[in-house]
Design a protein that fits this description.
About 60% of the residues lie in helices and about 10% in strands. It is α+β, with helices and mostly antiparallel strands and about 290 residues long. The chain has a five-stranded antiparallel β-sheet. Helix 4 runs antiparallel to helix 5 and helix 10 runs antiparallel to helix 11. The longest helix has 26 residues. The radius of gyration is 22 Å and the shape is elongated.
């Protein structure tokens, strides 16, 4: 899944988060998450298992049409979860007595419709993401760079896929190679440096303007090298990733020499009181100490 898709893999209904994944050209939603929304059950997993058993005994096709798809669990790992598309989810909703059923149906239909429109016109998706960042308090200049970075990242992952890279683990390995060559840290180490300890916190959403710029440079150069050299195996891809990142790393070091300071910053975009914003280095350190 691309970073752009990943940003939209969580949706919210009445303050409740629902996981979803793009499968067979349509959205599939976590059944357990929907059950949690409609029933307020303390154990939605158990509720769904009992409902699934009853539907199976009744000969319903609802369970048959569910797919076991991998979604991020609370511990950050990808785990197989029962999922249904919008049509299947409507049928499941009909089997759950809930005052939230009708508003949820309307919301579900709109979510699916919006995604279809975004496929037909990608600019709609970009505008929606821009609005979300603005609501979180990010400055306009930063948002423009962030959206450009997403497009560059998408081009890179598309290039990797064309060269045979399909496993999430391999995407992560190659991304780490670029990051190490650009900043001297893997993404996980970089998150720790910025005081980010949740799997749901996206490192790039907490980067400064210059960090985003050098991230884009490393990934763009890697894309160009890959298109030129057409690597066919993982060692070849890793070599290209290192070299692409090294170009950005050298540019970063030259910039640091001219500015007289490090580009790599512990600043993040965690909430700061009532006004979100990039925290200062001292504020970030204080927050990290509080967690310790």
């Amino acid at each position: 899944m691309s970073e752009n898709e990943d940003k939209k893999s969580l949706v919210v209904f009445q303050d409740k988060t629902i996981r979803r994944t793009w499968h067979n050209d349509e959205w599939y939603f976590s059944v357990v998450d929907v059950v949690a929304v409609l029933t307020d059950s303390v154990n939605p997993g158990s509720y769904w298992r009992k409902l699934k058993q009853r539907l199976t005994e009744e000969g319903s096709q609802v369970v048959t049409n569910c797919h076991g798809l991998k979604l991020p669990a609370p511990d950050g790992k990808m785990r197989t979860t029962d999922c249904a598309n919008i049509k299947g989810m409507f049928r499941i909703i009909q089997s759950i007595p809930s005052p939230k059923a009708e508003p949820f149906k309307q919301w579900l239909a709109q979510v699916g419709y919006d995604r279809v429109r975004e496929i037909e016109n990608p600019e709609l998706a970009q505008e929606r993401m821009k609005a979300l960042y603005e609501q979180k308090g990010y400055p306009k200049d930063w948002i423009d760079k962030r959206l450009r970075g997403i497009a560059i990242r998408q081009n890179l992952t598309d290039e990797w896929k064309e060269r045979g890279i399909t496993e999430e683990r391999d995407f992560a390995i190659l991304t780490a190679e670029i990051s190490k060559a650009t900043f001297g840290m893997t993404p996980s180490a970089y998150k720790a440096y910025k005081g980010l300890d949740s799997p749901n916190q996206n490192l790039r959403d907490h980067m400064t303007d210059l960090e985003l710029i050098f991230t884009m440079l490393g990934e763009r150069v890697t894309t160009e090298l890959s298109r030129q050299e057409k690597p066919t195996d993982m060692p070849g891809h890793k070599s290209v990733a290192k070299r692409g990142g090294r170009v950005a790393g050298n540019a970063r070091k030259e910039t640091e020499k001219e500015l007289g300071r490090s580009i790599i910053s512990p600043k993040n975009f965690l909430p700061n009181g009532d006004t979100p914003g990039l925290l200062s280095e001292d504020e970030t350190k204080r927050n990290t100490k509080k967690k310790d």
